[in-house]
Amino acid sequence: MKYLLASLLTFWILSPVNTDPPVWDFDTQLNDYFAAETERIKLRTEQELSAIEDWETYKTEARRELQDMLGLWPMPEKTPLEATVTESIEHEEFTVQNLHFQSMPGLYVTGNLYIPKNLKEKVPAIIYVCGHANVKKDGYSYGAKVNYQHHPAWFARNGYVCLILDTVQLGEIEGIHHGLHRYQRWWWQSRGYTPAGVETWNGIRAIDYLLTRPEVDPERIGITGRSGGGVTSWWVGAMDERIKVAVPVAGITDMEDHVVNGCVEDHCDCMYMYNTYQWDFPKVAALLAPRPLLISNTDRDIMFPVEGVFRVYRQVRQIYEQLGAGDQLALNITAGPHRDEQELRVHAFRWFNRYFYQREGLIEKTAVKFFEPEQLRVFKALPGDERNTRIDESFNTVAPSTDAVLAETSPAEARSGWRKDLDRIFANWPENDAPAIMDIESRVQSRGMQLTTYRLPSDEHTNLPVFHLQSTGRSRQGPTRIILLDEDNWADWSARLAGAFPGGPFWSSTEAKTDAAAILQRELTGGSLLLISMRGAGPAAFSGDEFKQAQIRKRYYLLGQSLQAMQTWDIRRALEAFLQTSETKDLTIEAEGISAGMALYASLFLDNRISLELTKLPASHLEGPYYPKVLRYMDMPAALMLAREKHAIRELD
């Protein structure tokens, strides 16, 4: 009976101060946020592309940004290719050379070079970049070049040299494309690494190789490929103007499709740049202007929906027409799903014939396969010095270590540089950084304690619960301990709150601890507790399995952000809002692991001095938190050095 009365009393005095109903549907908030951010990027790209005054200046700066987003800024050194032909195959119409080259030392690119017979002059060359096709036999990976061999064979039978390239993942040496959702390599975000950068670099070096061949006309080099190869065609064509004609097939749609409509969930990481400059994809496509460009797709492709392809085409056409090259852009849509349809091939062949041979005739020869996998094999044994399987660890340029920086400059100069770098790392935080105002959603008392639930508007679409727990008998608030609620500690805290304050919207009585009240009362000895929620964690977790959570995180990086960067924003907003109204400024954040790293960075943006107790703080951003390209600028020791200048920090094991 006593327990029943206590429960009734707790429920009875629950009275929301804010009369509007609380909105705690975090999945809806997330969808609204993604839609709004995508629309903002879309509109900005449209406005930018419609207001270009000097195309050459614009193109140069845009290309530099794309280099940066692909991990190619500064551009890697062009080291000797060490090109090697390992075997030749004779066909009555052409010769195939099985070859490899090194786009950088130890980064091997395997491919087949198809050369027409009886050449009397230099001829056009096509780079065919493969999509995702896994060709294995008796445990050996023969590479996607085997699956797509009918393309280069057709080109060679019609007067073109064609170099078909394996990808990093689906080559004879098997590297990794699916690093994020399949292998949990979220540290790629910290390095700013994307396999799209490696594929782009391999394509650029493939051009270098073709220019060494006596059969090739250097002024007539084109590129094409389907699916993943279609995407790489865009990257290489946008980055290198030695590509004179391009036909990317099933390789582009816009941010609306990828982020809002969910196409990102069907794609691997090689499809995406690290979008820190917040481009929509028509801007990538525009960088091929005014060169001849055929955008090709099928009408039932779920990976590159035709509606998004139309939206890209319309914006790119505007650029071509402004440059007086409207006739050099075309759109080919044919019937079919995401598949290598014959109609797609025919239109690609005709496009290259038109611009490289000035031919408009019918395509009389079909594209067919001639060879078994063993015939197209490059390596008899894989090279021992290959870096393909671990290229993600070294491809990008990263900042010198903190010690190395301090050896070259004064601590004051180092700190000044790192503070500027913070603006780059968190450049895509919300623009409105005016202090947030937290509204009280409810206030409840139970067993000598008072729990106030606040609604924190972290951004225009994200409302998060913040819980303030105090003793009711204390006249002054006293010091406040701050806990960040994450996936590691939320189960324990929700059980305590459920036991002491049954009926709350974020916990269930079935998870309540029987001694919860006593535990919380001990926690309140000497002060109060502030429990901060972050989007996607603890009480504000998003629904879905591990795969779905990974796709949510990928959407953030398509927006030029990361989930943990936005969680750091949430922490900053909560701290700033609490400091505005709290009678005490004596705050101590207690956090562990990646949350400790996020607390550290959030503190760098506070004006007030606070204390931080950081348990198991990651030694490097390779362990987290994973912020956009942070390792290109600084690592955790630099953040610690900045924070110690302002705050009291205690590191715990």
Automatic annotation (TrEMBL):
Pfam families: Peptidase_S15. It comes from the Bacteria. Residues 112-266 form the Xaa-Pro dipeptidyl-peptidase-like domain. Coiled coil: none annotated. SUPFAM superfamilies: alpha/beta-Hydrolases. GO terms for molecular function: hydrolase activity. This is Acetylxylan esterase.
